[in-house]
Amino acid sequence: MAELLQFVSSGLTVGAIYALVGLGFTLIYKASDIINFAQGEFVMLGGMMTVFVAMADVPLPVAALIAAIVTAGVGLALHRFAIEPARGASPVVLIMITIGASIFLRGIAQIVFDKRFHSLPPLFGSDPIQFGGAAILPQSLAVLGGAAFIVILLWLFIERTLLGKAVIATSANRLAARLIGIDTRQIVDFSFVVSAVIGAIAGILITPIALTSYDVGTLLALKGFAAAMLGGIGSAPGAVVGGLLLGMIEAMTAGYLSSNYKDAVAFLIILIVLIAIPQGLFGRAKIERV
Amino acid sequence: MSLRALLDNRLMPAIAIAAIVIILPLFFPSAYYYRIGALVFIFALAVVGLNLLMGFAGQVSLGHAGFMGIGAYSVAIGPVAFGAPSWLCLFAGAILSGTVAFAVGRPILRLKGHYLAVATLGFGLLVAIVLTNEAGWTGGPDGMSVPKLALFEWRVRGSDAWYWIAGTTFVVGFVLALNLMDSPTGRALHAIHDSEIAARVLGIDVARKKLTVFVISATYASVAGSYLALFNGHITPDSAGFLRSIELVAMVVLGGMGSIVGSLVGAAVLVVLPQVLTTFHEYEQALLGLIVMGFMIFLRQGIVPSIAAVFARWRK
Amino acid sequence: MMVLEANGLSISFGGVRAIDDVSIAIASGQVFSIIGPNGSGKTTLFNLVSGIYLPNDGNIRLAGETVTGLAPEQLARRGLSRTFQNLQIFSRMTVLENVMVGRHRHERTGIMADLLHWPSVPRQNRATRDAARAALARAGLAGEDDRPAGSLAYGALKRLEIARALASEPKLLLLDEPAAGCNPVETQDIDRIIRAIVKDGITVVLVEHDMRLVMNISDRIHVLASGRTLTEGTPDQVRSDPAVIQAYLGVHGSQEAVRAFD
Ligand SMILES: Nc1ncnc2c1ncn2[C@@H]1O[C@H](COP(=O)(O)OP(=O)(O)O)[C@@H](O)[C@H]1O
Ligand SMILES: [Mg+2]
Asked: When you count CB atoms within 10 A of the terminal residue's CB, does the N or C end of chain A come out lower?
């Protein structure tokens, strides 16, 4: 029982990060139909930049804030200078651009930062909390709390603000949104910025537990993408559930079967789910009207 | 045959490529160039196959390196574990890849767009994970060495020998792809790309055609993977990994989706570019990323179709 | 002998009954039209009959044989073909290639022959090309062979779909609004093309809003409203049916009704 609890806690922690990355994918996809494979680099930038700014004797919260702001700028620049000029290109070409961007960002990161692994001090100390026989890191709670906070904030924003409604309108029908006077380009700008910030926060939260380096982005992008697809593309609740599920499956496999095969089992389950439900858990089946 | 008839020949691109394969070495100052040439043709072979799937049938695969991996480890494990000759292992690997593609493709090719992308990605990762973890067979993450190819009494070594083998195989693969395009199967694949519903209404068994091209493209990738392993003499699970799959897709898109000549160009660019960029040391990756972005932004149809379009406009 | 029979067909989308207990029987050699206001279920009926949607209820028989639940490609092999209201052109291919795809069910070479370009393949390609050209001519599109299909005008694309369907040599052809967006001259062309098709022994099911065309060409007319059968009869019977006029007036506005039934 204690063992199970331990696995659940670590599964949820990792899953929360996947969920945040998946949310980043979802938000940009909703606003622009683009799958942004540079999403993982936002996570890397958030963590690495906090580490390096903090090294310059800047207080940690300030360092984190700077990292989030700079990452937001990177997100905006990605849209303005790489995506926007290729407007109208095919989806595969746009994906390749974001992959090019992620190679570029990784390349820059290894020059500006370095190629070593780094960590951050945990937010609330490192003494594990004993709970039902399991030892839970305070930082795990910080990750979960932070993720929940972001999800709620995003939900409130989408549901309660005019800008949020504009995002929904844009994702439902771009042309109609433009006709009623929504600046859809600004909406996409905005989605890139928010996704970048969400990614950066995920990076800052997870670094005390999982370490970071210039090349952690690829795997995270992969997992976040998988999470978003498992949940059903374009579905925010789907991304969150998909992320948490993915994290749990990995933790359970690692705990009870073999940690070598945790990714294998996770993707096997994703394959099975998609074969059974081709539009993902929360996605809507798209029927082409002919 | 008159010049006119020659130029209009269906196989003209293949003849031109064959000529390039033969003439190019005249300008090679060192064995290093043979090595690069061999690598270009090996990758181009895999890319032609992937292009049949992506560019013609419009089905994404983010896991094609998995099939390269199967081909690669076939020629590594077969001779060591079973004492089978390398060339036989190469064929066995191709058959294995085709069989795996058939088994995996049946369920997942029903998925569309990004869902197919994530499913193929998952497949590729599964292959890479198995290769990493079954160290008893594969040598684990460090990989294993691959016995040299022996054809009868001839032990193939040296970049120039591999240049000729890879070049010839590429031309054969290229011709087969051209053949396919000029056939009912090719037209059906092309049709599926634009409208599956219309294709079905015209009697095309879409699921079967997709599966067919998936198996064919897996076979191409497998042969290329075997060649790469035999040529390098060493392989690691990375040769089946996600980044390799992405590299293959990048070659297809960069050269031009649906352009078979583009497959060669895309492979050439992405094989040669990193070699050139090593002179920039730590800036290598950043530059590579920038160049990929630049190509995709400014030549979004891919290199070959973009150039062809410019020519067409210019002739008018 | 009925070419097509459908009995008690129904399908719902999220609670909306798009087709509700509709039955039709179409005799060989007829032009059978289906009319009704927008959203009354005409296209959905085509999608059911051509195997794109699976009915929740009811059955479909093609030349007497039950085909309910068969896939579109299986129905195609039994001689059913159709065009689409929302065009489904192979826009990356040329005009001729589009129609060549229509010959698919008559092509026999296997994958190995295709890969190796066996002599049977070029021979067959020539036959396919000739048949495709003939089909293009029947749809009034001769001489456009090598144009990219995407570059044709809307009216020509409608005819390209007809040519493509004809190339498959159907016994039963479903046309979904072939004259939509056509000017009067082009509509005349469509009229002529349909008459020629019927003369060649192909049964035509027509969905069309141009009432003049429908009234002129149809042997029987089936009227749908909100997914249900309103009435069926000859053009004269339908024209004078008060319920039909009511349906059109109620849902569709007077203008069309007046134009339709003058
Ligand atoms: N795939 C689908 N999903 C949801 N609703 C559909 C679908 N196809 C048709 N409908 C609905 O069925 C009804 C009939 O549509 P349709 O057959 O296109 O009408 P018509 O062709 O007569 O104009 C409409 O209310 C339409 O919204
Ligand atoms: Mg309709």
From this structure: N
